[in-house]
Amino acid sequence: MKAQFADYKEKVLQSFNHQGLAHTLGIEVEDFGPGWFHTKMIPSQQILQHHNYVHAGALASMADLSSGFAAYSLMSEKEEVLTVEFKINLLRPAVGEMILCRAKVLKPGKRIYVSESEVFTVNEGIKKLAAKATVTLLVVDMD
């Protein structure tokens, strides 16, 4: 997959830095390129549920955000994306020193993109798949 313009990274980072929920949850950009986006999060007490696992809502938000930015990295300068549907499978309790998300575009279309996010827990250097999401996004012209 190929970015549609040279300064796409600047546009993507500027948009990510305006994501209030990402900031609230402590989600940070790890790395990205055309059609893929990697994020990380160090779990804080504020995002844990009553069993001290990372709350499913935080995992879903991380998966949605990462998939959205994977798609956004392929947009033109005058296009945005909006999530229109997502499904997440929670595969194991999310407990760890760090949470990682690896998102990629599966199918870029003219108006609809489909992305996938895999969310991992990391404990003592061991990475385990905790959740998997499929995200459908709508391309929106901003003209």
UniProtKB/TrEMBL annotation:
It is an enzyme of class 3 (hydrolase). NCBIfam families: unchar_dom_1. The keyword Transmembrane helix does not apply. Gene3D superfamilies: Hotdog Thioesterase. The keyword Hydrolase applies. It comes from Metallumcola ferriviriculae. InterPro entries: HotDog_dom_sf (IPR029069), PAAI_dom (IPR003736), Thioestr_dom (IPR006683). This is Medium/long-chain acyl-CoA thioesterase YigI. It catalyses: a medium-chain fatty acyl-CoA + H2O = a medium-chain fatty acid + CoA + H(+); a fatty acyl-CoA + H2O = a fatty acid + CoA + H(+); a long-chain fatty acyl-CoA + H2O = a long-chain fatty acid + CoA + H(+). Residues 51-123 form the Thioesterase domain.
